[in-house]
Amino acid sequence: MIAENIQRIKNQIANTAIKVNRSPDDIKLVAVSKRFPVEKITEAHAAGQTLFGENYIQEMQIKRQQAPPSAIFHFIGHLQSNKAKIAAATCDMIETVDGLKLGKALNNHLQTLDKTMDVLIQVNIGNDAKKAGVKSSDTEELLIKLNDLPRIRVCGLMTMPPFEEDPELSRPYFQNLRLLAERLKEKDLFSAIEKPELSMGMSGDFHIAIEEGATIVRVGTAIFGERLLTE
Ligand SMILES: *Cc1c(COP(=O)(O)O)cnc(C)c1O
Q1: Does residue 100 fall inside a structural domain?
Q2: For residue 37, what are the contacts with CB-CB under 8 A and spacing of at least 6?
Q3: Would you say residue 117 lies in a domain?
Q4: Which CATH number covers residue 95?
Q5: Which residue range is the domain that position 102 belongs to?
Q6: 45 lines ligand 1 (CB under 6 A)
Q7: What kind and span of H or E run contains 94?
Q8: 134-135 and 152-159: which strand pairing?
Q9: Ligand 1 within 6 A of CB of 29
Q10: Count of Cβ atoms closer than 10 Å to residue 38 Cβ
Q11: How far is the CA of 211 from the centre of ligand 1 (A)?
Q12: Is 230 a domain residue?
C-alpha cells in the first residue's frame, strides 16, 4: 500500500512539474512519517523513498536509530532552542529555523560536533496566529544574521499556510513565499545557493505548490494514511 502511494505521489509530482515546464528532478518528496512507527519508514524505504520528515524531536531521535542508515531525515516541527543539541546531532536538515536564538544554539552545537547543516527559514506567510515561523517582513533581517553563523547554511524558505479546505486558496501564499525568496536572492542574501529551496505543499495541496515553484513537498497522509492522534 505504501509503495503504491509513493508511486502515485511521484507520478503526480512529475505530471504537475511537466505541466508547468519544470523538471520533476527539481522537486524532492519528503515522506512525513510523524506518529507512524519506524516499520512504516522501513517499508517506504524499501519502496525507494529515502527522505523522511518528522516533527517531534524525541520521536525523530528514536526513529533515526532504528531506520535504515541511508534514510535522510528533515526536521519539520517547531524546534525549541533547548532541543537544538539533539536536532544538530540527529537530522540532515532543519526546515523550521524561525529565530536567531535557535540559529545560534544550532551553530554552537554543530561547532562542537564539528559539522555543518543545511537549514531553511520557516516563514509565517499568512501571518497566522496559530502557525509558527518568522513574519515575512522580518525574514530578511533574520537571514542576514543567520548568514553570519558559519555552521549553518540557509538554503531557502519553508512555510505552512493557514489551512484551507480548497487547495486553490493556498496558491497566493505559495506565490508570496516564492516572491519573498526571489527578492532575497536578488539582494544576494542566498549567495552560496544557486536556487533557493522552497518547501511548501502537503498532501492536499502539493500540486498547487509545485505549480508555484515548490522544490520540496512534505506529504504525510497521502503516503502513510490517516494519523491516529490529532495535533
Ligand atoms: C504533518 C505535516 C505535513 C504533512 O501533512 P499531510 O497533510 O499529512 O500531508 C507537512 N508539513 C508539516 C510541517 C507537518 O507538520
Answers
A1: yes
A2: none
A3: yes
A4: 3.20.20.10
A5: 2-223
A6: no
A7: strand 93-97
A8: unpaired
A9: no
A10: 19
A11: 19
A12: no
- Say how many Å lie between the first and final Cα of the chain, rounded: 25
Q: How far is the CA of 228 from the centre of ligand 1 (A)?
A: 14
Q: Please indicate, yes or no, if residue 228 is contained in any of the structural domains.
A: no
Residue 194 grid cell: 544557486
| Total of domains in the chain | 1
C-alpha cell at 162: 493557514
Whether residue 126 has its Cβ less than 6 Å from ligand 1: no
pLDDT values of the chain reduced to their tens digit, one per residue, 231 residues: 999 999 999 999 999 999 999 999 999 999 999 999 999 999 999 999 999 999 999 999 999 999 999 999 999 999 999 999 999 999 999 999 999 999 999 999 999 999 999 999 999 999 988 889 999 999 999 999 999 999 999 999 999 999 999 999 999 999 999 999 999 999 999 999 999 999 999 999 999 999 999 999 999 999 999 987 654
